[in-house]
Amino acid sequence: MEDLSRELYGNIGVISKILFYICAFTSMGIFAYGIYKRRQLWKLGKDTGEKIDFKASFKALISRVLSQKTVRSGVRKKKAGRFHTLMFFGFIILFIGTCLVAVEEYGHILFGVEGENLFHKGIYFAVYEVFLDSFGLLYTLGAAWFLARMIQKGRGGSVRYRKSDYFLVSALFVIGWSGYWLEGLRIIRENTAYPWLSYVGNSHAHLFRFLGVNEGNVDAVHLTVWWGHGLLVFAFIASFPFTRLLHVIAGSFNLILVRRKPGYMIPVTVEELEETGKVGVENVQDFSYRQLLSLDACVACGRCTDACPATEAGKPLSPRDVVQDIRSHFNEVGPLIQDARKNGRDELEDKALAAAPKLHGDIISAETLWSCTTCNACHEVCPLDVSPVSIITDMRRFLIGEGALSGPPAASLQKVQRSGNPWGLPARDRFNWSEGLDVPTVQSNPGFEVLYWIGCSATYDRRIQKVAHAVVKLLEHAGVNYATLGPEERCTGEFARRMGDEFLFQESAENNIEVLKKYNVKSIITHCPHCLNSLSKDYPQFGGNYDVMHHTQFLSTLIKDDKLKVDEKAIKGEDGSITYHDPCYLARINGISEEPRFLIEEAVGEHALEEVKRSGCESSCCGAGGGRMWFDDEPEERIGRTRVEELLATKAKTVAVSCPFCLTMMTDGIAAKTDQVEVKDLSEILADAIEMTNNITSYSKNIE
Q: What positions does the domain 4Fe-4S ferredoxin-type occupy (predicted)?
């Protein structure tokens, strides 16, 4: 195979080459200009001052883009994910192959070599041909599948198609297929040795011969197809910034620029309020530049909407539509704002916004914004890190600032401000939950090692108080040196922040941080994932840095350290006797899903757990997050009702939870359907197992 190679620009004359380069540079110029114009529009957004975490950005590029892991994962759209992966890797390999041909071509010019190829020959060329034929086939198959799906579903389904999408997917398919046409024609024209190396191209060569193409007329056919292929490629390149293909560029930048942790929110300062006279997002230019960039990263695939529990419950919220509708609005008013700023005239900007539809009301309704539970499912499933949650919470801030919230949700915020808890109950009653227990406080045990954060639910809700009792019993049994804040604890303000009341949250956080500082608190455990998220991600923004653990993490550590022991003869469930509901703020937002299962295995048995279909990071929301706990929904309208049905479908006798909100929502939902299933927190299940173990041990000693 030493002489095996191919002629570069075979059958392409000087004039065609000149025209080719003119078209190539023109298409790349249009591409660069389009990206520049979009970048100028993105810059209309605010600079939040967030620093780039390059390590996290690189990891995100590998895990979300290069590995296509997020595209392939998920309960739904697995088939689309597989074909997208085929097309992606096929495209990348074909692009690399094209670059290698370019290196070969320009190497001749650089080194002044004429005639023989530099490296595009011999064994290398043989491997090259097989490799590109194989990956080109994967690419073409992927494009063909998407084209067939678009034709079949039209504008239906979860994907929101645009007219240009039909051109794009058709172009992708034809570019791949016409590449094989060219390869087949080249085989006929050059009478290529070992044509079977290009096995797909060789099959096309046989087809062309059957259609009458031979050495006498192949040049004309080859040149025609070559130009058709080339012009389509140039049109494809030029269309990038103006079509859905922009998601390739915008999505990559979206992954690189800023890597926020799930559950993280950017604080609003008093200085910003004084400067702008408003809180949150009123108009599109109030979004950050990264949020505007993420609008273009969204490909409207519908994964977020498929995963949204509010959409599933029939609420007027589709994360995909929120992003796409704001993008369309941005495309309309963005250039007008840009022109006004170029002229340095604020009145022109105000005039442009006054003439356009309003972001609030006309584009996105308040009911849509309040439907979100901030469960982060939409963000989790997005391959390009688009976060509808951050868009929604920033818009909520403006509504709160304008006094647009009323009813029970607004009352809950007022009660937090007045009494330090959403129930509006007296702060002096915060320690009443501990009646009958000898619970140490920071005053009675100043040498404590870890603080147990009780939270408002366990403080005032009689059912949730049983969770706090169970945790206290387990801590006492393990000999943990702990304490509680007693009456000095108040609401973390987590739900207030997610509802949009930023300054109420900050007031709550500052008060709590002062108290925690007074008692030199370093380590905190809490049974509430929402408190966990706020204490670990919100509070550090205001100087409150603590080692925060969820009670499932802490209890797992105690078991592994042999401080808590469950006898094998203690409660052992039958196969499938218990199922577990992963709280969104525990599993998805804070990545804690193994420890709860470890506790179930220790307390009930490794075979007792019956996993629900959507578990771990793919868990479905109970419906209480983001302040939805305080909305008065009718039972048939509640967001968590499908989750209840999913849990009951396992036929388990016990539903285990590890969040007070989930305990309330699941208890109410299940009680409305059956009285044969019990809902319990994992600490209660473990405490029962420990108590059973102690009884067995005492009984055994008596026998002896």
A: 289-319
